[in-house]
Design goal:
The protein has 167 residues and is of the alpha+beta class. Helices cover 44% and strands 18% of the residues. It is built from six helices and six strands, in the order E-E-E-E-E-H-H-E-H-H-H-H. It has helices spanning 60-70, 78-94, 102-116, 118-128, 134-148, 163-166, and strands at 12-18, 24-30, 37-43, 47-49, 55-57, 99-101. The strands form two sheets. It has a three-stranded antiparallel β-sheet with strand order 1-2-3, with no helix packed on it. A three-stranded mixed β-sheet has the order 5-4-6. The radius of gyration is 20 Å and the shape is elongated. Mean pLDDT is 87; it is low at 152-156 and 158-167. The chain binds zinc ion (ZN). Zinc ion (ZN) binds at residues 3, 5-6, 8, 31, 33-34, 36. Zinc ion is lined by residues 3, 5-6, 8, 31, 33-34, 36. Keywords: ATP-binding, DNA-binding, Metal-binding, Nucleotide-binding, Repressor, Transcription, Transcription regulation, Zinc, Zinc-finger. Belongs to the NrdR family.
């Protein structure tokens, strides 16, 4: 692997370790030309099987762009979106599958998005789960109220606002 600093075409591994969950190998490399060190990570490839039957590499950028649409006008930062996408990827990888259905990627997005912003969650879920009547929304809102009415309520920072005024 070439050096990212000086583009020297070779580098040597000075340290190699497996992450705690065993899903990643990190290598510390040193460039023999400029002497600088950098890290590489090796993970099993993860592909997403689309409804069309085509499979493509899992992409955090695609998760982010899908969720970003649902977050329009909401107080959700790029950092939060990046963290959500990372969590989605980790959740999927921890399942140990090499290929995952696109539908299951959507499923993996729902929980972290619910924790991030309830309105964005409702938008995403309504499209993803094909809500086609008011009763679908009512059922989802009832469930969210029940979940947020529990011991988690104190953890809500108030920036989410009540769902009822937003819909
Ligand atoms: Zn170098």
């Amino acid at each position: 692997m070439h050096c990212p600093f000086c583009r020297h075409p070779d580098s040597r591994v000075v340290d190699s370790r497996t992450s705690d969950d065993g899903a990643t190998i990190r290598r510390r490399r040193q460039c023999p030309e400029c002497g600088r060190r950098f890290s590489t990570a090796e993970t099993a490839s993860l592909s997403v099987l689309k409804r069309s039957g085509v499979s493509e590499p899992f992409s955090r950028a695609k998760v982010i762009s899908g969720v970003r649409k649902a977050c329009q006008g909401r107080p959700v930062s790029d950092d939060q979106l990046a963290m959500l996408a990372q969590r989605v990827e980790e959740d999927i990888r921890s399942s140990g599958q090499a290929e995952i259905d696109a539908h299951d990627v959507g499923l993996a997005i729902l929980q972290p998005l619910q924790e991030l912003d309830l309105v964005a969650y409702m938008r995403f879920a309504s499209v993803y789960q094909s809500f086609d009547s008011l009763s679908d929304f009512e059922a989802a809102i009832t469930r969210l109220r029940e979940e947020s009415g529990g011991p988690h309520e104190a953890a809500q920072d108030g920036s989410h606002g009540p769902v009822r005024t937003e819909l």
